[in-house]
Amino acid sequence: TEPDYYIMALVCIVTSLLCFHLAFIEPIGKFIGKHRHNFFVELTDAIGLSIFCVLGVDATRETVGAGVIPLILVFGGFITGVGGGMLRDICSAQIPSIFRKDIYLIPAVLGSTLYVLTYPHWPHLLAVCVASALIMSIRLLAYFFKWNMPVHKQGNE
Asked: Among 83, 80, 48, 70, which residue's Cα sits nearest to residue 119?
């Protein structure tokens, strides 16, 4: 395997530890203190989603080969990321996040798209880290600010 993935894993670990230590900053600490369990579940979910999206793009590129339509690479990325989350939710007897009002598919599509657009032009590690950071940031901001997708309300019609 490529050493870039080991470096990315190390960056994710450092990011997780940094987020844990940010809990000592007053407003962030109050929020995390109230929602400690949920925050760490969301943090690890955001990390997993970002890694699986990037690996999905790479796996699709390696499988399909050169000259593939970029849309196929984006599709491979977000399907891998979202599919992993769905399996996790199904195995824990929950409704998958993508079928709830959570912001889940949007960061996966945006991060996969960013990675597909940057990996030919940037160093591999930089493209991986920037795309992963985008996905993690959107997921964590959505959790922190309680952003949700609109939900159709069924009425008596």
From this structure: 70
